[in-house]
Design goal:
6 helices, 2 domains, mainly alpha, 113 residues
Length: 113
Amino acid sequence: MTHDRDRTIGLDAFFEAARAQDSGADPDFLARLQADALREMPVAQPRTRPGLLSEIWRAIGGWPAVAGLTAAAVTGLWVGMSPPEVVSDLWTASVSLEYVDPAGSFDFAMVEG
């Protein structure tokens, strides 16, 4: 029932008149509009070179690597400032080895022939 209606109620004449009519835009105005639009377009900014500290930071490996280095440094400082007894005993033993004459063993090797 709705398909029986004629939808062209005489609008074709109006559409033809609209197509035939000039757009009314001045070519000078359109040129200025285009120039303004091109001037306002975003331009890619040149990339700035990162600083020396940024390059060192990236070369080390960023936050994870610096966190590991910090943990190792703090642990080393802690052990160095207040060493456990085992480390103190080992240090004393290694220092006492410096007083042994290394030339004595070479003399003994030469005597055997």
